[in-house]
Structures are given as C-alpha cells and as structure tokens.
Predict the structure.
Amino acid sequence: MAQREHRWGGALAAGVVVCLGAGGCAGGAAAEGSPPADPLDTLHRAANALVDAGTSRARTSMEMATGGTRVTIRGEGVYDFRHRLGRLTVTLPQDPAGTVEHRPITELLAPGALFMKNRGAGVPADKWVRVATATLSDGNLVTGGATDPFTAAEVLRGARTATYAGRTEVAGTEVRHYRGTADLALAAREAAEGGRGALAAAAKGFATTEVPFDVFLDETGRIRKVSHRFRFVNGHRDAVVDVSSTTLLYGFGAAADVRLPDAGDIYAGKIAEE
C-alpha cells in the first residue's frame, strides 16, 4: 500500500511540474512599531498559538515558476488545529487555450495523510485517493497544490533567523510583520509528532533545507498570513522549480467538522498519470 501511495505522490508532483514545462495548466506598508524582545521565540511559538485558537477558515495560494512559466493554484476551506484536520477545495488553473477546465479537487488533510477526490485518471467519482505524506519527496508542502496550514506554521519552529519589520494590516486586522529563514531539518526535529515525518521528507527532498518566509501575527500571536518560498528539482526535466506558498487564516472559531473517508471509500486501484 505504501509503495502504491509513493508512486501516486510522485505522479502528482510530476504532473504539476510537467504542466509548467509545457507552458502551464490551464498588506500595506509596514509602520513603525515596537519590536518584541525575541522574534525567534515568538515565531517558534506561533504554531502553539493556533492550537490554542482551535479552528479557523483558510485560503491558500501556491505559485510555481520554472522556465519562464508561472502557474497559480488556489484553495479555500477550514482547519481544526487541535486535531490537525482540514478540508480544502483546490482549484487548478485553466489550460492556456481554455479548452480544458479542471474540476476542483477536494482535499482532506490529516496527520501523515492527504486524501483527494477528483484527482487521478480512472478514479471513480465517489472514491478518494490516499497519499502518505512522509512518502512524498516534498512532504506535501507542494504536492497537493496547497500547504497544510498547520505544517506551514510548524515550518516556523525551524526559524534560525528572524527580524521584526513593523506593524501593518492583513484583512483589516492589525498585525506584526516578521521575515526570516527557517531550516526544514530543524523544523522536523521540533515539530509535533504527527508532522515530523512530512517535514523530514521535505528536508531531504527539496533543493535546499533553507526556507525564506514572511509571516504576520496578530496581538495574540496567531498567524494571520504566512508565505514560504520553496525550491525543488523537477526530476523529469532536471530543472529547479521555485514555489511561493501563501496561507491566509481568518474566522477563528469557525465550525470545522472534518470527517475522513471510510476504508471502503478509498480507491485501491492503479492511478494513471495525467
């Protein structure tokens, strides 16, 4: 089972990058503010602040660039930080000619697993595909087209450098802006148990373990917006792909009843590359 999942994860990541190689698939300025005493300590605790918050709504955006081509994939949904469960509707871009319209992909995020519906040639419409995130070379930071919101927060546990860039606003909320660089290997060691495998896989699979970031925290230390810049090598074309992944969190306390598929609803057959 794990071997089949690994092949599927590679196929999905390769499929997105092949789209790029073929020409694509279809806050305000910072103001002065008093910096906190220790920016690194604040960022290392940002994931815990989300657990304390419980739930939120989320919007995601992932821009992939290689060979002069850019593709943007967007998602929207809810997330339960205490149980590390999320549901996103991910929208793929239309083909350049406009002849192929991709159905939105429903993704369920769970510790160690990604479930997808409407993704994979030959998969029945009522079935889910399950991917073990630790078997993916990027730990599902990129593969699903959206970075798991809690994993995005846990990357900050690996922050090695951080500077305070002042106050600004995100979606009408006053926030503190920080920028810096995180190390994926350190993040994996410091992550909660359910997220270590995925981050460790990413640390080995990306072109570099260093991840530049920008993050915006509200007065309670909760992430309102975080952007990471990842780099990985497309094995099919041996080209470096630059990925900018942004997660926006809002509506804290929103209902987030995420139910994972029953075993009988998970597709067990072979998945064809698209």
Summary: Residues 1-33 have pLDDT under 50 and may be disordered.
